[in-house]
Input
Amino acid sequence: MKSIEELRRQRAEVNAQVQELAQLETENGELTAEQLEQFEQLAGQFDKITEQLTRAENVERMNATASTPVENYGNRSPAVHTKPELKQYTGAKVARMAMAVAAGKGDLQLAAKFATSEIGDADVSMAIETSAGSGGSLIPQNMHDEVIELLRPRTVVRGLGAQTMPLPNGNLSIPRMASGATSSYVGEGADVLASEGSTDDVALQAKTMITLVPFSNQLIGRAGFNVEQLFLNDMIASMAVREDKAFLRDDGTTDTPTGFAKICADEGRLVPWNSADASDMAAIDAYLDTLILTLMESDSLLLQPGWALSPRTYMKLFGLRDGNGNKVYPEMAQGELKGWPIKHTTTIPTNLDTSGDLDNDETEIFFADWNDVVIGESDMMTIDFSREATYKDASDNLVSAFSRNQSLLRVVKEHDVAFRHPEGLVLGTEVPW
Output
């Protein structure tokens, strides 16, 4: 007789195929004769497996009822080993799924068994069982949402208020107003020309981001909060850095998103630093006001304005003091600059040469109504495992996981970014401070 776990996995696979046929019928209105025949076969298999599963569960229950208690030895009772209650926190199930996939060495059946017996999380075990045959362990939508929630405070673009929308089938078109309707006054008996606003679409198309998390083989097969946190923190940190770089500075080539800087360059939304003295407090303050004014004069709604800077620029502004020794921007201690949220990230470089002066010490300041920024998220996210793969380390050196006694967990995620109204963006360039 097959094990209960195996029967449950087989029934979950049959159910997944039935749901696919049901979805096809919903979309097309009816099934073909071949699909109807397949549906009947799957229904029969589901019922047969259910009967086998019921018998297996009854056998296990009767065996437990008829079992003989363990005798005591002297005054000592037999030891009972219990696992501590699992800690529940955001991202826990994603981390446990990764630990189970690693322990199973890519075998999802073994991974599901590890999730049940060693980790003790039935939800993770079920998620792994139902994702068999998907080219990796498919992360369910509710667990995927936890990853997005963890990314929000770790990334500049998400943290400043960018909207998140689903990408059905990897694509989404968002309508926007391209030109507005006009209004005018008219005297009695005079004609007025009617005008209408015109619209166009902002298109999002899923781009694939792969995150590789090197993992010591000595930790594989171990369950616990500390191991979970190690993987989760490494994964989120890597995702956050790459996301910010893509959403802010990628140019849309080599299958990357088209970021903030590229859109500003194409739409003429650049404001270069215009003073020779990088230490002139008045010039710096006036420059920041110019960025704000540029956004205001473009009729931006300013629903969610905010600043994104390099750490160097952030600390320059944070440390500015007037002639009396008072801080020029004391509100930065509360995370604001001139009344709007401010964040810093190392993905904004400080070695640019936009002006052509060959100094290679320039950076950029991103100021926008982040409500106009839309991140499209695909519901497709998978975790896979390899012991033989190679990867590049922080110094861009090729590393063999096998030679370092490591394994690699690969997280595949799809998303894209779009900007509904370019007039809601402004990019400060050639900034030497």
The chain has two domains: 1-53, 90-121+131-173+201-433. Residues 90-121+131-173+201-433 form a domain with the phage-related protein like fold fold (CATH 3.90.1690). The mean pLDDT is 86.
